[in-house]
Amino acid sequence: MSGLRILFSGMVAGDPEQGGASWSILQYLLGFRALGHQVRLVEPVDRLDPGSVSYFERLVRDFGLGGDAALLVRGSRQTAGAPYGDLARWAAETDVLVNVSGMLRDEELVGPPPLRVFLDLDPAFNQLWHAEGIEMGFGLHNRFATVGLGLGGPECPVPTCGREWLETLPPVCLPRWPRAAGAGEAFTTVGNWRGYGSVEWRGRRYGQKAHSLRKLLALPQLTAERLAPALAIHPEEREDLAALRDHGWKLVDPAAVAGTPARYAEFVRGSKGEIGIAKEGYVASRCGWFSDRSACYLASGRPVVAQDTGFSRHLPVGEGLLAFATAEEGAAAIEAVGAGYERHARAARGLAEELFDSAVVLTRLLDRVSSTPADSAANPVRSADTVS
């Protein structure tokens, strides 16, 4: 399958100074292009904030997206980048809409494509919000894909919301992510202490990264390796900041080291490996979420030690990628990587080439959404955990 017209909606600039968030979308855009498809990006925003527009214009220039990308003010035809009329004409002839978390709701753009894919990069949360009655735009789509590898499985209590969710891995455009030489001095990661509100579902909390990390505070004290996360945490979170520092976490400023796609890539390549901490909601749900950030570390030949969300049931772990549940298990995994670093570094790159290569991931994604019957994808599925 080649030569498709694809309209892609995702966030690259609405929250500027987040190079990793931009990369999570760029991997799709660059990957689809490399496969010979025509792609246009539209990002809905509440307003054309000067900071977002400046970041967007720089990103468009740096990645050769001029004329093929736009910020669109919700509920209007006001854009930065490609004019609305161009977007509407493109949508009218588009084969596939890929809509991250259903963020694009403009009926003139969403309606025409015959394949309309809700791409779930936030598994458990999107489904639980829908189950709570929040409008997620499911009804605008006829295909549903998720990076929650365990969503709908026996371990995952999260409702499927009457949809068949096609599992997919986060893609990495490998030519943009060569294996890095040498090794850095610290295990790092990039993330937000809090992203958005937690969800309560059937008496259980599905929380944020803050809730996960508080349970793992002792980890730096259990390993000789340096742990230096680029963590966005508000300065008024004084107790948590003190606890992190007292336990040996060497915090760095994410805006400074990962505020653009270029700085983010440099930070990843300059690390020894990743210490991946997941949102509590991903861990508690056993949804099998796997981070696009971790995929970048793997592609760079940087081993990943990641908190298990259930992904270990679906991905090979043990070399290059190691999963843990407790601080003690995390420390043991970090020490194992340090003891056989070159072997784990080679294995990390090997996993990226085998599993996360955008050419493989995106070809499979398009094949699956095109071959899945619309009735199967969109109609309610009768199961005990389904919420219609």
What descriptors fit this protein?
Rossmann fold, 388 residues, 8-stranded mixed sheet, alpha/beta, 2 domains, 17 strands, 15 helices
What would you say this structure looks like, in words?
The protein has 388 residues and is α/β, with parallel strands linked by helices. The protein folds into two domains: 5-171 and 358-378, Rossmann fold (3-Layer(aba) Sandwich), CATH 3.40.50; 174-356, Rossmann fold. Helix content is 36%, strand content 17%. The protein contains 15 helices and 17 strands. It has helices spanning 19-34, 50-62, 84-92, 107-110, 125-131, 209-214, 238-246, 254-258, 261-269, 280-285, 292-299, 327-339, 341-356, 358-371, 374-378; strands at 5-9, 38-45, 69-73, 79-81, 96-100, 115-120, 143-146, 166-167, 186-188, 190-192, 199-201, 204-206, 226-227, 230-232, 273-276, 304-307, 321-324. The protein has an eight-stranded mixed beta sheet, with helices on both faces. Strands 13-9-15-16-17 form a five-stranded parallel beta sheet. A two-stranded parallel sheet has the order 10-14. Strand 11 and strand 12 form a beta hairpin. Helix 1 packs across helix 9. The longest helix is centred in the N-terminal third of the chain and has 16 residues, at 19-34. The two termini are 33 Å apart. The model is unreliable at 375-388 (pLDDT under 50).
